[in-house]
Automatic annotation (TrEMBL):
Protein name: Antibiotic biosynthesis monooxygenase
Lineage: Bacteria, Bacillati, Actinomycetota, Actinomycetes, Mycobacteriales
InterPro entries per the UniProt record, alphabetical: Dimeric_a/b-barrel
Top-level taxon in the UniProt lineage: Bacteria
Amino acid sequence: MSVVVIVRFEVADLAAAKQSLSNNAALLAEITEDAKAQGAQHHRFTQNSGGLVVIDEWDSAESFQGFFDGNDKIAQVTATAGVQGPPSIEFLQPVEAAGTF
């Protein structure tokens, strides 16, 4: 069964971070293709009051960690986005229940 991965990146300036994502569209497209090849099923950038939040679905937590840990492309994007410190990463196990879609 897949896992949902929540990654929280704190940034000093949210508007500048979002602009950086736009400016790095080609690199983000490369990262997306790499992620799909390694087990990513869904990916979404969101925001909260402290920064950027990524919500992913992966085939396993191990696949995500293998992709994410030490990834130079991700390091480049997060540096240019002004990410402050290491991200917070949470793995959630889906629950099959009526009404889920």
